[in-house]
Design brief:
The protein has about 525 residues and is of the alpha+beta class. It has helices spanning about 1-20, 25-40, 45-70, 85, 90-100, 100-110, 130-135, 165-175, 180-200, 210-225, 235, 240-255, 265, 270-295, 300-305, 315-350, 350-365, 380-390, 430, 475-490, and strands spanning about 115-120, 120-125, 205-210, 400-405, 410-415, 415-420, 425, 440, 455, 495, 510-515, 515, 520-525. Among the domains are: about 1-70; about 145-380 and about 470-525, Cytochrome p450, CATH 1.10.630.10. Strands 1-2-7-4 form a 4-stranded mixed beta sheet, with helices on both faces. This is Cytochrome P450.
Length: about 525
């Protein structure tokens, strides 16, 4: 009996070796053990026969997979890494669950060097050469990791598309983020920033959770920008619990991205599908309201749905709704992380805060409006502080992997040959803290490194917005929003941590679920006389 089960399991292994589990190969995991059991016991199936056949079948199947992955015959055998990561993707699932994937990966790079095998068929590479050869224009397509982010009941959005469909959709996005479009969005950012300022002025105690208000600000801005209407979180709060939904969805998407083949089962878990359905509904509702209202400004919807009629074929409403929801989720969460980290670093470094305050007060000494972009080129130190916050706390700390296509030739990255099918991470968090590229003190917040030529500063290794054809399409919008919001907050208030707030513990609450979720940042905002 054991021999037959072993043979059946080995056959299944050989098929699964070349094909990820799918609708067809599901049979190997369910039907085959049942068949073997039926043949072996040639009589009515008993519970005992089912249990023993299935258990021995899966034992041999899992053992053969693990032994092959750890063997010298595996194409990634010569890359170092922890045994558990080489053996199973569950190691990656666990690290993601802890929220500290970025920290764990960095520890692995310190231990093993620039190349680490972080999964059975996954490498993490920390080398500036990988930025170009993996992410660059002649780099590689997005990995199977992204398949799990596909909503089976909605068209793919920009972040999931590949090749020509991606390039086509990206043209529409680019049109919505030209300097002229950014100029249109200035008024939106100014209106929402003024609402936050008014709220802080009215808060009698002055004690606030800065993270919450930054979240509301970026969410309302992205709503106005994408759909010509905000969600009024600043005025009404998060009535529908959208931030919680986004954060829960981010965690489940990050977990399942390690095993995209399991998405069909995972989606059936009510907690997971609930969040996905809520986000899809949110995108469609925004789309319907925007269509009913018509174009009042040239918002992102105007460009994504090609209201100007430039394209031969207009995208469908569902496609635009998917992209509109992506804009809100991708744009609000990342920018909020960046602004929150900026303020945490400023409050941790009073001398830097003081120097930045002097710059703000000097640049806007003539009572000019910090909510105009006219003086942004003069905010040299603020720019350096933002870059330094993005370097140490990149809002997308590990990013998604690219992949050497199946059936394609092996590729050379940073001098090493990488076989077909390998997923490659180029994690911004580790790259940004590599002493080869940022010295001295790569882990310290030193905005001056962006200004002094005597410091090691490899700008090609600075990739908070990723790099290449699928880099962040909204990076200029994010920069504009951060400069405007930080300037007006600093001009109007003096911030300090609330007494008793454990500021040191805050970075540990940054959880890397592809985007970063954040804990509360309790500060006191004392109005300044402007
Ligand atoms: C500080 C703020 C931001 C950071 C750090 C950031 C970072 C990133 C990164 C690292 C990627 C690449 C993801 C990948 O490779 O899978 C990305 C993609 C993207 N970002 Fe951002 N982002 C920010 C703000 C924004 C804003 C404001 C928008 C919306 C206007 C936006 C929209 C997008 C979109 C649509 C993509 C997908 C691009 C593509 O696949 O072609 N992001 N972002």
């Amino acid at each position: 009996m054991f021999l037959d089960t072993t043979l059946a399991a080995l056959c299944a292994y050989l098929v699964l070796h070349y094909h990820e589990p799918s609708g067809i190969t599901d049979g190997l995991l369910v039907i085959l053990p049942a068949l073997v059991g039926a043949i072996l016991f040639a009589g009515p199936l008993t519970l005992w026969s089912c249990v023993t056949t299935t258990a021995s079948y899966f034992f041999v199947l899992v053992l053969s997979v693990v032994l092959y992955r750890l063997s010298p015959f595996h194409p990634l055998a010569h890359f170092p890494g922890p045994v558990l990561n080489k053996a199973t993707k569950l190691a990656g699932v666990w690290t993601t669950w802890t929220g500290h994937q970025h920290l764990t990966n960095q520890e692995l790079h310190v231990k093993y060097g620039p190349f680490v095998r972080v999964g059975p068929n996954d490498l993490s590479i920390v080398d500036v050469d990988a930025v170009i050869s993996v992410l660059g224009p002649t780099g590689m397509p997005k990995g199977r990791y992204y398949n799990a982010r596909r909503d089976p009941n909605a068209p793919s959005n920009l972040i999931i598309l590949q090749g020509e469909p991606h390039a086509h959709r990206r043209r529409l996005w680019n049109r919505g983020l030209t300097p002229e479009s950014l100029h249109e969005y200035e008024a939106v950012i100014a209106k929402r920033a003024s609402q936050v300022i008014a709220h802080f002025q009215e808060t009698s105690s002055g004690d606030i959770d800065l993270v919450k208000w930054i979240n509301y600000f970026t969410f309302d801005v992205m709503g106005d920008m994408a759909f010509g209407r905000g969600f009024n979180m600043i005025l009404d709060g998060d009535k529908d619990g959208l931030w919680e939904t986004i954060e829960q969805w981010a965690l489940s998407a990050a977990l399942i991205s390690h095993m995209p083949w399991a998405i069909r089962w995972f989606e059936r878990i009510p907690l997971v599908s609930k969040n996905l359905i809520k986000l899809r509904k949110f995108g469609l509702e925004c789309a319907m309201q925007r269509m009913k209202a018509g174009a009042t400004t040239k918002d992102l919807w105007y460009h994504l749905s090609d209201e100007a009629g430039i394209e031969r074929e207009k995208p469908s409403v569902k496609e635009v709704a998917s992209d509109g929801a992506l804009a809100v989720i991708a744009g609000a969460d990342t920018t909020a992380s960046a602004v929150a980290s900026l303020f945490w670093f400023l409050l941790q470094n009073p001398n830097i805060y003081k120097q930045l305050q002097e710059e703000i007060d000097t640049v806007y000494a003539d009572h000019s409006d910090p909510l105009s972009t006219a003086k942004h080129s003069k905010l040299v130190y603020l720019n350096a502080c933002i870059n330094e916050a993005l370097r140490l706390h990149p809002p997308v700390p590990t990013n998604g992997p690219r992949q050497v296509p199946e059936g394609a030739k092996a590729r050379v990255v940073a001098g090493r040959v990488i076989p077909e099918g390998t997923q490659i991470y180029v994690p911004p968090y580790s790259l940004h803290r590599d002493p080869r590229y940022f010295s001295p003190s790569p882990n310290a917040f030193i905005p001056e490194r962006w200004l002094d030529s005597d410091k090691t500063m490899e700008s090609a290794a600075f990739i908070p917005f990723s790099f290449g054809p699928a880099n962040c399409v909204g990076r200029q919008m994010a920069k504009q929003e951060m400069l405007m919001f930080a300037s007006v907050l600093l001009q109007n208030f003096t911030f300090s941590f609330v007494d008793g707030f454990d500021a040191e513990a805050w970075p540990a609450q940054l959880h890397d679920y592809f985007v970063t979720t954040r804990g509360p940042l309790m500060v006191r905002a004392k109005p300044r006389s402007v």
